[in-house]
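To make this tangible, this section ends with a sequence with its structure tokens:
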Amino acid sequence: MSRSSLENPVFVVYAIAASIMVLKIMGQGWMTVYRMLKSDSGLASPEDLRPGLINKTPRQEQLDLNDYVDRSRRMHRNDLENIPAFLAMGLIFVTIDPSLLAAQLLFYGFVVARLLHAVAYATKQSHEVRATFYTVGSVIVIYMALHSLFVLLTAG
């Protein structure tokens, strides 16, 4: 049985967690677009002021910072800074053949931590609240990296 097949329950857990995290990244991008359209502001680049089908009468103030849009943009950037490391490390972690329980706790733990981080960010919770959820996710990825590195260096 290949470790990266649907016959391997650890890989299935990873694939589920990874799919949710990819949807989170992509969904956050769409949320930013939605907020820009809804507020008719928060555009990111000067060329966005060219008239088009959606923005027929652009205005200079559409480039002004809008926290409603920028908060979503910051959340997206945060996802892009954190989720790819999980995607890469999770796949490597699958190759060292961890127990199913360990994989479930780590993979789903990361997903829950990132989703709670998003809720905390979207609802303007304190930095300490966001940092708590970030720390949980970060420690999970660091643990997987260190554990994998140990297994890989001592194999053979």
Notes: The radius of gyration is 20 Å. Residues 52 and 58 are 9 Å apart (CA to CA).
